Amino acid sequence: MQVHVSIGENHRFELREALLVYRDNQSSFISRHEVTAGKDAPPTLGPAQPLTVAFIESLVRSLGGSIKAEFLPANILAKTDRMVAWWTPAGRRQMFYENSEGKAAELNGLVFPQPPLVWRVSNGELNIRALGENKRPEGSTKLAVAPFWNLSDDGRVCTGTMRRPESASVAAIHAWERGFYESAFTHANVGRLTRHEGGFEGPWTELARKRKRFPIETLIGLPQTLAQFVRGMGF
Question: What digits encode the pLDDT tens for the residues 39-59?
Answer without folding.
Answer: 777 888 999 988 888 888 777
